[in-house]
Amino acid sequence: MPESRFAAKLNEQIGHEFGAHQQYVAIAVHYDAETLPRLAAHFYRQAVEERNHAMMIVQYLIDAEHDVAVPGVEPPQTSFSDTVEPVALALAQERRVSAQIAALAGIAREQGDYQGEQFMQWFIKEQVEEVASMSSLLKVVERARENPLLAEEYLARESAAEAEDPTAPHAAGGAL
């Protein structure tokens, strides 16, 4: 049986998620080098989250008996002009991923792949949260441009409320 268009696009999305992972690692390293540990930690966590999104897609494809292809990724941007640019880049990335996820859900619906469409629902919800969170962080770092320690304080307050999502799909390889 030929691979479905939805499965082919999911395989592409694995690459997008790993690309996002790499970009977030690069952003975290930038903030680490600038001695902004809260911003660095935030983006290291975001990197792990993106990696796990890729692995959730891998697990879904395995479970649905589709072939899995792990595409290569473009090198991430590694230098930034100030503390705002990495967050602006991250927000643009989250918006791009949101469009990709919506397109995937549309393809699943168009093909009558109800399991695939259901699988994409969690990612749609996740992307709404990611865009909102990154939008808020961008506003904070813009206001704190001259004193990035204010952004550090914001993250210290806000990160205490973060929790695991029990409705998240299972990631291949478990919670590594």
Number of helices: 5
Q: How does CATH name the architecture?
A: Up-down Bundle
Radius of gyration: 17 Å
Strand proportion: under 5%
Q: For the record, what CATH class applies?
A: Mainly Alpha
Low-confidence stretches: none
Distance linking N and C termini: 33 Å
Instruction: Report the major sheet.
Output: none
CATH superfamily: Ferritin, core subunit, four-helix bundle
Give the structural class. Answer: mainly alpha
Compute the average pLDDT.
93
Q: Which topology does CATH recognise? A: Ferritin
Roughly how much helix do the residues carry, as a percent range? 55-70%
Total number of beta strands: 0
**Overall domain count:** 1
Q: What does the overall shape look like?
A: elongated
Order of secondary-structure elements? HHHHH
Key features of this structure:
Ferritin; 176 residues; single chain; mainly alpha; 69% helix
Briefly summarize what is shown:
This protein is mainly alpha-helical. The chain has helices spanning 5-33, 37-63, 85-110, 114-143, 149-158. The chain has a single domain (5-159), classed as Ferritin, core subunit, four-helix bundle (Ferritin).
What does this structure look like?
By secondary structure, the protein is mainly α. Helices cover 69% and strands 0% of the residues. It has one domain: Ferritin, CATH 1.20.1260. The mean pLDDT is 93. It has 5 helices and no strands.
Question: Which helices and strands appear, and what pairs or packs with what?
Answer:
Blueprint: H1 5-33, H2 37-63, H3 85-110, H4 114-143, H5 149-158
Helix pairs in contact: 1-2, 1-3, 2-5, 3-4
